[in-house]
Predict the structure.
Amino acid sequence: MTRIASHRGGTLEYGDSTPQGFAATANMPLEEVEFDVHPTADGAIIVHHDATLDGTTDRSGAIAAMSEAEVRAAVINYGAGAHPISLTELCAIYADSAVDFRCEIKPGVDGRPYENFVPRVVETLARHGMLERTTFSSFLVESQNALSAATSRPRLWLVSPPVLRQLGPAAVIELAKSRGIPEIGVHVDTADSVLMAEVEAAGLDFGCWAAHSARQIEKLLALGVKVFTTDRPSLAIAIRNRFRAEAEL
Ligand code: FE
């Protein structure tokens, strides 16, 4: 059965990357929690979607230019007053959960990978016993290379609609194989059975991201993709339960 990944801890149900969203996801009957990481100026690792606080909190500024204390002081929009948390805290929330990590390596505000960041993320996950429960993802080919150098954990390449359109499926598959990337994730609206068959015929796993509506979730369950991320984990669980019940009839 298709795996469900609660994107940013279920943004549309709990706010962006909130402690309560992550705590709720830890107790849900799904397989993965997706989150993004950014470094602070003083060496902490913060779990937040954007590289800046501008769009998702009451503060502004680049996380990488701020101290951990400054980032923590921000109040997350629609987050019931909650503040951003560190990767260390996220590890504590999931220590006893059956839900595994899907950690996305994000670029900084300039679109470039953070300097020497991936080894620090890997080390932090390992120190808190979560590395063996982590799959990594990134849109950046450079970050894929950094991941392959730092860890043997599974990783997937997030392929944006413009990249998929410009390169075409064959070149995307070729690039993934040449870099040793075992899985490709595409936007739900660019997924179809032809693309999925092409990716799987090349020996790669096929997943999707951004399935936030019932229609999008139903599409991916019907296709039978390996995994998808969603901002609405409770909705995805309910629809998957319905699919399961129908399959048993
Ligand atoms: Fe992400």
